[in-house]
Records
---
Amino acid sequence: MLLEVLKSKIHLVTVTEANLNYVGSITIDEDLMDAAGIIEGEKVQVVNLNNGERIDTYVIKGKRGSGDIIMNGPAARKMMVGDVIIIMAFALMEPAEAKNFKPSVIFPDTRTNRLKP
């Protein structure tokens, strides 16, 4: 049996752009991706604190150090510029591994979407 557990979390960042006319996905500043252990193309769940929406999508690598959090395609209808969101990635693990696993959770500055010193 495998359990799905939290692997990575970017806690409380602000949507900087919403691009409806795009293929789809979420673009995340590469610094935040690295800090949280999220890779390009990985499936993530995004939850919106402003309206309660939840979506599953995949990650596109954003410009390093930009603070970009861009909702692309249909997600741009669910999460708008200025909304505060949480981005989570999950992994499948055996129960014994899951018991000792510690997820990578980061808390960037919500105003700038940059890592705190």
---
Amino acid sequence: MNISLPVPALDGRADLDAIAAWVPPGASVLDLGCGEGVLLNYLKQSRGVRGYGIEISDANVLACVKNGVNVIQSDLEAGLAGFDAGSFDYVILSQTLQAMRHTEEIIMEMLRVGRQGIVSFPNFGYWPQRLQVMRGRMPVSEVLPYLWYNTPNVHLCTLADFEDFCASHGVRILERVVMQEQGRPVRIAPNLRGSVAVYRFEKK
């Protein structure tokens, strides 16, 4: 008798829902900064996805192991030299891009190791954040919850910034989803009205 395991929830994060929708059954995935392995666990159980997570936190690595997720403990800033070119169908970086010091290098490494890359990040161009800057304050919001002195974020960007980066680095954007905090999609003036962006891309 086959017993169906319950498919794990995606932790209430709309960007993870969008990412999961782009990953087909049976794909191979590398999840960078995978946290407790929530996304990989979901993809494994619901899509039969094969893959690994990379995580630096001891507690998160332990949680991945408990969740049955293959995880490698490593610092993303050191790069992905341990992986051969084209090792994965998709390389994912969710809500971590803005905390990377070597942003350019990690995006290009994603496209060396994977056929396609998927990233999600908070949009610094979101209008409430623009308003806080105009008032002379660094933004604090649901997607940017840290104060200026304790934030891990070092390279915040807007949708326009990311798309300019892709255009100048030979990266083709395949799909984009922009949403507000509650997961509502934004189609009109997304760089002004969207708080979170999710992109799927490949080398030109």
---
Amino acid sequence: MNKLLKSLPEDARKKLKKKKQPSWTAPMLATLTDERFSDPDWIFERKLDGERVLVFRQGNRVRLLSRNRKLLNNTYPELVDAYRNQPDGSFIVDGEVVAFQGRITSFSRLQGRMKLTDPEEARKSRIAIYHYLFDLLFLDGYAITQLPLRHRKMLLRKALKFHGPLRFSAHRSGKGEKFYKKACKAGL
């Protein structure tokens, strides 16, 4: 067990399952609701307008997969590079690839990039992309989806280096209604 996993509280470590890294795992999906609420047991994250992308890394092998299992390595080659340059280890992370129009994520801008399947053409495009990560599903031989999301996000924050196109998706605890109002005012 790696140092990060050993740093978890004992009750969390007991939930870890040693296993071979899967070639696919479905992303955890949000539940849509019209209700706004606050709850100290919930975390609240910014909604991003992009493409859901899971990253599967084993050693030097990196695969970017859409939630429909479409291989996206040629569309986002700078992400492949960024994940290859991470510290040694294996992991599965979940996040959203976005492009910005000003300070707001823009799916229509991202679509210009999503159409590209030649890595050189993608690198030369003037559409900068970023991968906002919000979940860690597997780490160094352990499935960690049984852990609470707060623990997984803490591990994610420490397991990867966030620079270049990689971004950590921050969250707010408990005050969902306040976060919702701020997001609306900001045009998010």
